[in-house]
Amino acid sequence: xxxxxxxxxxxxxxxxxxxxxxxxxxxxxxxxxxxxxxxxxxxxxxxxxxxxxxxxxxxxxxxxxxxxxxxxxxxxxxxxxxxxxxxxxxxxxxxxxxxxxxxxxxxxxxxxxxxxxxxxxxxxxxxxxxxxxxxxxxxxxxxxxxxxxxxxxxxxxxxxxxxxxxxxxxxxxxxxxxxxxxxxxxxxxxxxxxxxxxxxxxxxxxxxxxxxxxxxxxxxxxxxxxxxxxxxxxxxxxxxxxxxxxxxxxxxxxxxxxxxxxxxxxxxxxxxxxxxxxxxxxxxxxxxxxxxxxxxxxxxxxxxxxxxxxxxxxxxxxxxxxxxxx
Length: 326
Fold this sequence. Notes:
Blueprint: E1 3-9, E2 14-21, H1 25-33, H2 35-38, E3 49-54, E4 61-67, E5 73-84, E6 88-96, E7 109-118, E8 121-129, H3 133-141, H4 144-152, H5 155-167, E9 172-175, E10 180-187, H6 191-197, H7 201-207, E11 214-220, E12 228-235, E13 241-252, E14 256-263, E15 271-280, E16 283-291, H8 295-302, H9 306-320
Antiparallel strand pairs: 1-2, 2-8, 3-4, 4-5, 5-6, 6-7, 7-8, 9-10, 10-16, 11-12, 12-13, 13-14, 14-15, 15-16
């Protein structure tokens, strides 16, 4: 059990939990900032979590859902108020509705996470701040403290697996819901480099090609929110051609972009694509959450071998990047 102490301070209206781990500091930090990892322990074993959004930067947001044994769903969200990687971050932790919007009828709490190295590995100190004794007691009665203990007991297993995660960089697709898929890959390069690779037309034409044998004659990038983009690919030596168009809805350089995406010439519903870039050990985690109109559209797209083409493109991108030494 990693938790070594729990302290409730009624005068300061805080609960402080200290936990020690036999893992390097960076690995513990990555476990909290990578959505693939934090969702393996954030919820108690009987209420596993899925993170639908996870922006590990000041001003960012996270949205997660925990599903109970009877299929009941409970949503929560974070507002990231401060980040000092890899030493500390602070969030406003709230209950949320199914859209990810805060539920103002339930109490919120401010939480700080402090990471430090130890001779045996690393230590995490989390402090939760409450507005009143009544609010503090309400959350305790809801089982927040017991749930936190159960959740943190799962972290050791996640940390042990992180080494293999770092070695296996292939694109992976994970079903988040009936309509959502998260595609993720660690790319050898800095966040700034990977962002530029998605916003420089000349560079995109060199790597965003999918399987060998294709070129990208049209690469019109949306440079501001509200702009449209258009990408088209053509098979070498042939007339076969396809493409996508859409609109840039959100842009927070260099870590988040949200776009719509529709296939040119096809009467399919547009998808919503949420791209997030996070610095992790060994490079940049690219996380792409795609929302489809329905499960049928989601499954049809995945059946095309989409992730295989993306993996080929990302391998090509890594060959172009010159990562900055750590």
